[in-house]
Amino acid sequence: MPAPTDPQAPGPQKLAEACAAAMWAEDTASQGLGMVLESVGPGTARMAMPVRDGMVNGHGLCHGGFIFTLADSAFAFACNSRNAKCVGAACNISFLRPARLGDRLTATAEERHLAGRSGLYDVRVTNQAGEVIAELRGQSRAIGEVFFT
Question: Within a domain: residue 25?
Fold first, then answer.
């Protein structure tokens, strides 16, 4: 794939898709939890995950760690969509409604600010009825590496 500064380089959408494909190939954690990358674009991503057996806590609700992991994965694909490899520097999540066994959760990540090596992203997690389950705010930090040169 040509470097993003090359005049023959693909547009931002194709680049985001290529970065996502490279990440997905190595993301055994998200795959192992049954996540699906539904869409990706420059600074955005949408992932879904079913709440399966083994994901419920002692209250019979989806464990918050799995909800966080889904939101974090969507955040990761959104902040890595511009050919700069990024990691999470900080995340804060608010759990607003319980998720239950059999629910299909969707996390939608959107870039709010990008400057230099730092980015700010909001992720909303909803269930199949469109009810908001959680909101995550993540800060990213580029690590000085790229997917494609």
Answer: yes
Q: Which domain holds residue 28?
A: 12-142
Would 65 be classed as within a structural domain?
yes
Give pTM, 2 decimals: 0.93
Contacts of 119 (CB under 8 A, 6+ apart): 43, 79, 86, 111, 113, 139, 140, 141, 142
In a domain, 64, yes or no: yes
* Count of structural domains within the chain: 1
Q: pLDDT tens, position by position, for the chain (149 residues)?
A: 344 445 456 799 999 999 999 999 999 999 999 999 999 999 999 999 999 999 999 999 999 999 999 999 999 999 999 999 999 999 999 999 999 999 999 999 999 999 999 999 999 999 999 999 999 999 999 999 999 99
3-class DSSP state of 47? strand
